[in-house]
Structure formats: C-alpha cells, structure tokens
Amino acid sequence: MKWLKEYEYTLRLEYDLNENSVVFDLGGYEGWFTDQISKKYNSNIYCFEPIPEFANKIKNRFHDNNKVKVFTEGISNESKSAIIYINNDASSVNSKNGTPLSIKLTKMDLIMKEHN
To answer: How many Cβ atoms sit within 10 Å of the Cβ of residue 45?
Structure first.
C-alpha cells in the first residue's frame, strides 16, 4: 500500500496549474483535495459537496480564502433531486450503504453558465 500513499500525496496532485487556473472538486467531503490544490497552486477552486454537514465543514475550513467557492450540491448530467447514502468518504448515490439523504444535483453546463 506504500504506492497508494505516494499516489495520494504526489502523483494525484501533479497538474499543469497555476494561480489563474480553475479547478472543480466534485465530492469535496472534508476538503482535502481542495486544500492541497490551493496550497500547491493557489488556483480558483469550485468545490461541490452535496451533503450539508460536509459542505459546511469545507466552508468553515476555507472561510478566509476567497479563491475557494463551496457549493452544497452535486454535479450531474441533469438538474434534479436524488438520494445519497451517507457513509463518510464512501458516500454515494449508487451504493445503498449508509444513511439516506435527499440532495440537490445540478447540470454542469448550468454551473458553468452561472459562474462564467
């Protein structure tokens, strides 16, 4: 599992990004990826986390960083409500392991249009 930790902390964060880049973090959970990208590249980050409890933690974590925008919604190919099963970082609309919660999903093109 050593290679997995190496991937998690090095290769997973190797991108051609800079302070003008726009990054989408889809399924922010606790904001780890957003945090790492922000620290490494200082990019503009749009973090989407449909579970309010998790989204609020991310909002609190980045409350003083105006380059991070957090949305309490998920991204989909259509705008609709869905049921997600809360199971920490394994929360999913596809697996029924966990506590069900109704969430908001929004089409990506609507997000892009709304935020230029």
So the answer is: 24
Main-chain dihedrals φ then ψ at residue 50, nearest 5 degrees: -75, -15
Structure tokens belonging to residue 99: 């506590």
pTM of the shown model:
0.87
Give the separation between CA 106 and CA 84, rounded to whole angstroms.
14
User: In sequence order, which residues have a C-beta less than 8 Å from that of residue 50 and are 6 or more positions away?
Assistant: 27, 72, 73, 74, 84, 103, 104, 105
A 10 A CB-CB count for 55 gives 20
Average pLDDT, the chain: 91
User: Binning pLDDT at 50, 70 and 90, where does residue 9 land?
Assistant: low
What are residue 5's phi and psi, to 5 degrees?
-65, -40
Q: CA 83 to CA 104: how far, in whole Å?
A: 9
